[in-house]
Amino acid sequence: MDILINNMAGILSLMTAVHKELLKLSEKKKDILIKSDRNALEEIVVSEDKILSKINSLEQQRVNIVEKIAKELNIPPEEAKIETIIENSNGMTKHKLLQAKMNLVDVIGKLSRLNDINKELIKTHLDYTYFSLDVMMRGGEVPETYNSNGYMEDGDALSVGLIDQKV
Fold this sequence. Notes:
Helices cover 74% and strands 5% of the residues. By secondary structure, it is mostly helical. The longest helix has 47 residues, at 91-137. It has a two-stranded antiparallel sheet with strand order 1-2.
C-alpha cells in the first residue's frame, strides 16, 4: 500500500508541476490580454491546450491509482478521497502525500484567481467591442419616405449608422 501512496504523491507532484506551467501561461495571457495582442493570445491558447492534454493524462493515472488504493482499503473508489487516503497512511508516506496535496491545492488556487482576472479582462474587451459596434451601427435617424410635396415626413424614420452611410 505504501508503494501506491508514494505513486499517488508522485502523480500529485507531477500535476503540480504541470499546473505551474499552466499558471505561467495564464500570467502571460493576462499581459497579452491587457496589450490586446490577438496573435500572441492564439499562441497561448495552443500552448494551454497541450498542457491540458498532459493534465488529462495525469488525471487518468491518478484515477487508476485511487482505484487500486480503494481496492486495498476495501472501499468503493468514489469514497477514496484524498483525505481518506491520507488518514489510512502513516509516517513518511503520509507526510509526502499531505505535502503533495497542499502544493497542488495552492497552485490550483492561484490559477483559479488568475483565471478570474483573465475572464474579466476578456469580458471588458468584449463589452468594449460591442459598444464600439453599437456606436458605429447607430448614428442618426433618416426619415423613411417623402410626402406628396417632395419633403420627408417626420413620422417614420430609419436608423442609419456609420456602416450604413457612404464614406
